[in-house]
Structure formats: structure tokens, C-alpha cells
Specification:
The chain is α/β, with parallel strands linked by helices. The chain has helices at about 10-30, 125-135, 155, 185-200, 210-220, 235-245, 255-260, 275-285, 290-300, 305-320, 320-345, 370-375; strands at about 10, 35-40, 45-50, 55, 60-70, 80-90, 105, 115, 145-150, 165-170, 180, 205-210, 230, 250-255, 350-355, 365. A 5-stranded mixed β-sheet has the order 4-5-6-9-7, with helices on one face. Helix 6 crosses helix 11 and helix 8 (about 275-285) runs antiparallel to helix 9 (about 290-300). It starts with 8 loop residues before the first strand and ends in a 9-residue tail after the last helix.
Length: about 375
Amino acid sequence: MINSQPRAGYTLPVFACAAAVAALRWLKHGAQPISAVPVNLISPAETVEIPIEGAAGLKAGSALAMTRSDPGDNLDLTRNTPVWALVEWLADRHWQGEEGERIAIFGGEGIGRHGEGGTPAIYAYAQQLLRANLERELDTGEKIAVTIIMPQGRELATRTSNEAFGIVEGLSLLGTTGMSEPLSAPGQLDAYCEDVRKKAGQFDCLVFCIGENGLDLAQKMGVHPNQLVKTANWLGPMLVEAGMQRIKSILLFGYHGKLIKLAGGIFHTHHHLADARLEILTAHACSEGVPVPVLKRIFACPTADDALNLLRELDETTGSTWVGQVYGAIAEKIDLRARDYIHTHTGTSVSVGSVLFDRRRKIIVTSDAVAGLLPEVRSPAASSLF
């Protein structure tokens, strides 16, 4: 019998962690064969075996180990890319970490940074994973420095949207779980719809996020994590599922370069299927009265981020408010299109609000409906939202 269920894999932080564990074991136990190491994923709460391609000592007190990324049945450009970890013993006089900590984590070649010369893009889950798995390998008094390296990271990053979120020089170790969900596989849409069905029984309002950046930012801004739903690029089917489950309201939370497509009636946001961002932006700018010479410059911009920056520069130099006007109109059109899409396919009426953020993870605009939805999605631990 053919198994049609997509095969899950693991996220990049898991392979970085596995390489670090292997390097530490070589450092502690010498030149013994290491074919695999266990990694406690934390989320989900299970331990898995990750293959190791090799481990070796370098100079005295340091070792290097390597594994390869396996994202499962997903069209992920990091498939089979090598992930290295360099682990070094540290004496107290060399310690650069926080007091009480025993593991200092660094980003090496191929690991992205937050802007030129900024901090490495090694996010909270990756940090937690590394510390939890390495701590159990350390004896009392031992301290280590861990440097994660992705030799192909800088090249691969040019084919991602990392730079759109301010990550330069490489790939980010991003994610909130150890499992790499096969987003490109048809079976994953069923899993996402099942998540909507499950949460529809608990909440009247859900927050839709296309990717990990949106999920991470929404939580940091105080959105209740249990109300978050990852949609990937399947916004249309997910909106329909929400309507069928009688969800009363939806907050769309996303990067402007993705959500702007909804204002043009594009409900599958993968760029391979449709990409009319600049056309949509130019049309709304025209409707709001932006001068023709500026419209021509917007239409000629290489990316939506460039067009946004053009409007921002115009506002700064002339005192205009084009960003608020144009993006405000886009946000309202997103709400309208989404509501109509749901009603057309399900016959139900769902309130929709939109929050658009930029490459620096700063909110550009919120639609008028958002204010009424915020109390419904605020985490109890958050004093306020946004």
C-alpha cells in the first residue's frame, strides 16, 4: 500500500543541536565513532535520533561535528545542507556568558544576523534546545562555547525572504518546534484545517499567520498563543474552513509583502502562483491620489519593501502621509476581500481585521476592525497588545 501521508522532518535548530551534542561528546570522550545522537525536541516532548556525518578534534580543547538538514517531505531549500557545530572548552577567564550559565552560543559563517554586524539570528527555541541538550552532557564546573556554522547559509539566504525581515549574511535558526511540517505537501493543508476545527471549539476569534515570523512576532506582541493558527500560503482554504466552523472573527497578522496580495483577490500567496504586489500597491496609491511621477517609481521598484521605503522617504521629506493613506486603504481592502471570500464560499459572515508589518517587524498599519478584535486575542499575561 502506498503511504500518501507526508513525511515530517526536523527544523534547522534540531540539526544545529545534534551537531553540537556530537562535538561535545567527541571533546569529552575522544575519537570514538559517532553515527547518531539523541536530541530532546522539547516541543514536541519527544527524543529523536539524528544522524551525524562526522566529528573530529581540532586544536586542543575544541571539536567540530557535522550533520545534514532533513526537513521531510517539504520543498525546503535547506534539504541536505551541512550544519556544523564547533564546541570549545572555556575557562572562567574566557567566559562571556551570563552569570550562572555554562553555555555561550555564537553564530558562525552562514548564520544570519539582525542587520549588518548585528546579533546572530538564533531565536528562542534554538537557544532553549541547545542549552537543554548540552547541559545534560556537562559535568560540574564545565563551560563551553558553541558556534553554529552553515557553510552554504550565505548563498541559500539569497533565495529566501530573510532579508525582508532584516536578516542578512545567512539563514536564521527560527522556529517554535522541532518538527518540520511539510508545508508544500497537500496533506499539510488538512492538518492546518484540523487545527482550525480544534480551536474553533475553544475560541470565537483566531489569529491567522502565514509563517514563523508572524507567529513569533504575534506572541511577542501579546497575542494568546493558543489562538494562533499557521496558514502557510493557503489563506483562501483556511479562511473558508474558519467560515465553515462558524468562527466569528479573524485577525490576519502578516508581512505586508504577503498580505497585500489579498487586496488584489489573490488567496494563495505563494509567489510561484501569483505575484502582483507592486501592481496592487500602485493601484491603491493611484486611488489615494499619489502623484503620477511617484506612481511610476512605485511600479518600477524591485520589491514591495522598496516601494514602502519610497513612500516613507516621501513622507519624511514632504510632510505627506502617503504610507498611512495607501496602506490604510490596502488593509481595508484586505478585510473586505477576505470577508467576501468567506461569505461567497460558505454563506457565513465573519469579521476580519488586518495587521501588516514590515521587514523590521514593525507594524505599518492596522485596519479599523482590529481595535475591536484585540481584546479577544490578548494573552492573559500581556498588559497590552502592540
